[in-house]
């Protein structure tokens, strides 16, 4: 097994090669990778069976995410081939201008270099991340969860073989086979080789990465998202939007976790939404005002207000006005997606302007916070930070700029 | 003295206010600040005298940077007023598009929120940073060096009074008066209040910040910059460019520190450039090949190749070809500014494409890496990282984006 240091070194070197490939070459190779995945599906499925045999302790949904069969592999290959059809994030035209002394400055879009991805037991991320980083001219270091290690090794081997077949350095795509915590820790500190690390996983894991890494990190995905129903809301519409945002896919980061109801409508609206959510199997927790209005709802603890459940649970609070809603949201937000349900333009404007989140919604389900839904064609993650990229990240998030200056002997006076 | 925590809290609150000011209001206040600086110059100069009296140990250039008199204050006020004339970094038009289900997505440009600046004994940075963060709608926390503390307090008091006079929260601009290391340490970890921290200072200090901070950081300024003279270079032009890049202002980050000479021209070119640099008072150090060619040059140590001198010192090395030059530069670069002096298009293309730096020059002095020279009107620093901002940073580097979504009840299927 190669050391993480060695993998980093190789990635840095390989990043120069992949950064110089033409769009036509990158696309041809992506399509060849899609074909190779399907052609090698029996090897991949056999490796996945090993992972599944070791995965007795996993819950049903986690086992589902881990499972690869002919159909899921076909889906992964299809997504991979679709990346070839996306616009080139490195393409010009680039801004350029002349300095008064006559030299030309070109502001070029270039790959970041070496991207490291740390993620959990979802083997499809191995292929997605490899495809998106490759398309954008980067080398990638993949460090997936140990539950998927055999699947990941098999997938990476197929992708690397395609690189070899095209006379390219296979270290453009590398998988860390060491699934110990130490290998992650080493990655977090390898500033000389890694240009950006993108963690995907639980809020707790991402916090660990952000507070420990010395390499540049893009925070993704923690979503303690709120819906505020103000006094002017269309209540029938609100019932549908809240139901959708909470129940349509509760395990993901853009589903709703908290509901704030304006005091003027609480007595009327709470029983209706509680009926609907309880019927959908949602466990409700509430502040004292909520519990006083509906005896089916149990009292929330202080920890509830900062917890991302990723489950059929929702905490509800009565709020006195839009200003309090904004202040509450800004105190508890993970800066992902926040929603106001309202027909009052002044309330909407305040909420939009003052809530500090990547995406702020009026009268729309927050389940739409997603690269595909936003029209970016692909998504490497959802940034909850403000620097570099915010919200759903498409291919441009994997690029940076470089100033190229061409002159004929200009000196500064 | 207020705690750093309290200052952070206040800044977060004030950031909402400044983020909502119109361009006209921001510009009017900037101009009022410029007027107030001049009107209060005697108070400022008196405070500065205290700092100077305590600054017996400072070197001449550092004392110069610290000194405020009527003329320097007029210059600072003029720069401040000029910020009012810069384009609004928050202005639209914003990209916007409709989702197939009918809701609208607007990609808005918004301030970062709370910007923290940590810097050394240059009181002008106090005003520059306050002006640029204010113009871009941010609250700022300033933490200047202890040598300038009295000057900084006086300057901040003038700026804050202008905010009060305009019925605004003065905590939009705050100065940390505690000049202990602990106050910096606290800043580095105040994730709940600080959106970005920009350190300005020595490479060692910036490294400390980057490796210890848990708040988002933009790395600035360390510049171990190289010039590679290839076999095709116009040697007369090269002499002028190297001389300018090394000697015109040796203490700054965009001045040249290392010279790489192609072996085919080393015997011819080295004596000429050594004559010119030695005449300008530059101490030369070299690898063995260089020392063998010119006995005036002493042998460089391994540490030389990674040292930013910020002084009249230059280390010179003989290189076998462009590929070796690129590899050498990429190993020792601080990713700031790198230069090739060449008339050979193939060498220039390789160097431009493969050298990993914010700015890459052909036949131009690297002294031009500067926000004003690049036409950005102002500069909050020079980013040597790849995320968010790279190279000279103008006002847009102090902004982020936010997606505002407006619909009428859309839910995800």
UniProtKB/TrEMBL annotation, chains A, B:
All residue ranges annotated as the Aldehyde dehydrogenase domain in the record: 3-279
Gene Ontology MF annotations: glutamate-5-semialdehyde dehydrogenase activity; NADP binding
Protein's GO biological process: L-proline biosynthetic process
Subcellular location: Cytoplasm
Keywords: Amino-acid biosynthesis, Cytoplasm, NADP, Oxidoreductase, Proline biosynthesis
Catalytic activity: L-glutamate 5-semialdehyde + phosphate + NADP(+) = L-glutamyl 5-phosphate + NADPH + H(+)
Pathway entry: Amino-acid biosynthesis; L-proline biosynthesis; L-glutamate 5-semialdehyde from L-glutamate: step 2/2
InterPro entries in the cross-refs: Ald_DH/histidinol_DH (IPR016161), Ald_DH_C (IPR016163), Ald_DH_N (IPR016162), Aldehyde_DH_dom (IPR015590), Glu-5-SA_DH (IPR012134), GPR_dom (IPR000965)
CDD domains: ALDH_F18-19_ProA-GPR
GO cellular component: cytoplasm
Main location: cytoplasm
EC number in record: 1.2.1.41
Pfam (any one): Aldedh
Family annotation (NCBIfam families): PRK00197.1, proA
Function summary: Catalyzes the NADPH-dependent reduction of L-glutamate 5-phosphate into L-glutamate 5-semialdehyde and phosphate. The product spontaneously undergoes cyclization to form 1-pyrroline-5-carboxylate.
Similarity-based family: Belongs to the gamma-glutamyl phosphate reductase family.
Protein name per its UniProtKB record: Gamma-glutamyl phosphate reductase
Species name: Fructobacillus ficulneus
